[in-house]
Design brief:
With 353 residues, the protein is mostly beta strands. The chain has one domain: Neuraminidase. It contains two helices and 26 strands. The strands form six sheets. It has a five-stranded mixed β-sheet with strand order 1-23-22-21-20, with no helix packed on it. Residues 1-7 have low confidence and may be disordered.
């Protein structure tokens, strides 16, 4: 069962980048008393040899300075992920040469200061697309990777974020795609996976979000739910007070042949969800100001507040996802006060009782 509660609005949200380009695919960390935000600047959502990954930094989340810029050496480069590994900033990106993006190679590099970087080098064999890495209590790093050839999502491990070792298959289900992972308080690892169910631009009525769980040493994965509340595209997971949250692209309305789950002809939002592994699956909490081509969110937790980076088409126009892919988008930041959110949820439950 999937629940929907009254949306909780962010305390504040604002534009970080709006320069007439298609600015997209963000990620965010807080490191050395500053926010670090990576995104792609390109002519459109589709492949371009003129795409660039831009890395910004800011002490307050409002005033930003460019720290570095990366290109694909004549190829499309996209989907940056950043993490702090052994007090170094790790950047992961994907190379692509198909107009309708089908990335084929993961590249990565680390930096001691965030401004001086070596050349991005292949991190995986061709075909593996690395997702956002997460650290265990022991300091080992884990990351999901999706293989476009086999269609499987698999867990990989690393000590330094650069050399990765293959682990267990999270899901071999046909139609699985982007995956995010997060550690639970009891040491288990969960995975949230975008499940397309074979749908194309028109989506698919059976599409949704897979939730899988594994106990240490994470060699056996079990699907605990398939939520059809939404197909959570580009999922990001994080934990606050032992509660797991997810941010991703949501489709608020599902109906008709052009509005099936995941349809490119429908409207989208960047949304916040609660994640429950005991059967509820996803609970919708809030939509951040967003429209059209949106999500690929990053998150940094600071003083009980979730700072969420994401991208969006113009809000007033509220275009379909497909139309949003063709035109400029902006990078935005939103703040969600998690303590206030939890309080409101508790009060809403009391009213239900």
């Amino acid at each position: 069962m999937q629940k929907v509660v009254a949306p909780v609005s962010p305390v504040d949200s604002w534009t970080v980048v709006d320069n007439g380009r298609h600015n997209a695919f963000t990620d965010l960390v807080y490191w050395r008393a500053a926010f670090w935000l990576a995104y792609v600047s390109s002519p459109s959502h589709f492949a371009s040899r003129h795409s660039r990954i831009v890395l910004l930094h800011s002490t307050d989340g409002h005033v930003w300075k460019e720290a570095a810029r990366f290109d694909g050496h004549g190829e499309d480069i996209r989907d940056p992920k950043i993490a702090v590994v052994n007090d170094r900033l790790l950047l992961i990106a994907l190379l692509n040469h198909a107009f309708d993006p089908l990335p084929y190679q993961t590249v990565s590099a680390t930096s001691l200061d965030g401004t001086t970087w070596p050349e991005l080098k292949p991190a995986f064999p061709t075909g593996w697309l690395l997702g956002r890495p997460k650290s265990s209590e022991r300091g080992d790093w884990f990351a999901p990777a999706h293989n476009l050839k086999t269609g499987a999502v698999q867990l990989f491990t690393s000590k330094d974020g650069l050399a990765w070792k293959a682990g267990a298959i999270i899901s071999g289900e046909k139609g699985v795609d982007e995956t995010a992972i997060e550690f639970l308080a009891d040491g288990r690892l969960i995975a949230v996976t975008r499940f397309e169910a074979g749908g194309g631009v028109f989506g698919h009525p059976q599409a949704g979000t897979l939730l899988s769980v594994a106990e240490s040493p994470y060699e056996k994965w079990t699907v605990v739910s398939l939520s059809r509340l939404t197909r959570l595209d580009s999922p990001t997971l994080f934990t606050y007070l032992e509660q797991v949250y997810a941010v991703g692209r949501r489709q608020p309305h599902i109906s008709g042949p052009f509005g099936r789950q995941g349809s490119a002809f429908s409207r989208k939002r960047t949304s916040l969800f609660r994640v429950n592994v005991t059967g509820e699956g996803l609970t919708h909490l809030a939509d951040l100001p967003s429209a059209g081509d949106t999500a690929y969110a990053g998150m940094a937790l600071l003083n009980g507040q979730a700072y969420i980076s994401y991208y969006t088409s113009p809000l007033r126009a509220d275009p379909t996802w497909l139309m949003g892919m063709l035109f400029p988008t902006s990078i935005r930041m939103g703040i969600v006060p998690l303590a206030m959110l939890e309080k409101e949820l508790m009060e809403s439950r009391k009213k239900e009782i």
